[in-house]
Amino acid sequence: MNFLAIDASTEACSVAIKYNDKQFSEYELCPQSHSLRLLPMVDSVLKQANCKLAELDGIIFGQGPGSFTGVRIGIGVTQGLAYSAQLLARGVSTLQAMAQQAYNDHGEHKVIAAIDARMSEVYTCYFEVDSQGIMQAKTEETVLKPELVAQYYSHLAVPAYGVGTGWDAYPILAALKSNAQSPDILFPTALAMLAIGQVDFSQHSVDAEHAQPKYVRDTVSWKKLPGR
Are residues 71 and 137 in the same domain? Predict the structure, then answer.
C-alpha cells in the first residue's frame, strides 16, 4: 500500500512517502515556519515518487504531543489533503515515532521518550518493540514535572534508551536513560511515523474530518505581561 506521512508537532517539520515500495522523505528544523514549509515539502516528495495524491491509500499524521500550534498545522494540512483526494487518515504519537526511530536506527528494544513540554514539564512514555518491529507504549503518555518522572517509571526495569529534548532540558532525568551521551534523536520524523502508521492502517484510520490531536496536556497557563 502507498502512504504519505506528515509531521509538524515539534521544532522539526518532516514529510515522507511510500509509493510502489520506494520511500522518499524530507526533514527540516524550521521553528515557527511549519505553515510555510509543509505543503512545499509534500509537493517535493510527491514529485520524487512520481506520484499523485489520489494514487495513495491514506495519510499518516503526527497527532502530538508537542507544540499546540504545530500539531494543529499538521492536522489541518492532513485534513485538507485527505479531503481533496478522498483519503483516510491515521494519527501517530510523536513519542512513539521517536521510540520507533531508536529501534530502526540503533536496534533499541526499550525506550523512554521525553520531550520538553515547557512550563517545567515533560511529555513522556515508555515503549517496547513488538513482534512486528513496531514500538508499543507500555505506559500512558503523560505530562509530568521532571522530579516526578522517576517515580512514574519506578515499576519498570530502567534505565532504557532515551530519546527527545527532555533529557538535556532536565538533567534530573539522566539516571533513567542508558545512553550516556545526549540523545541523538531529539524530534520525531515522518519516516518513523510511516513505519508505524502503515501497519493495520485500515483498522486505525478515520475520515479526514475526524482526524484529532492528542495534546496530553489539555490546558495551557498564560502569564500576563506586566501592565497588561
Answer: no
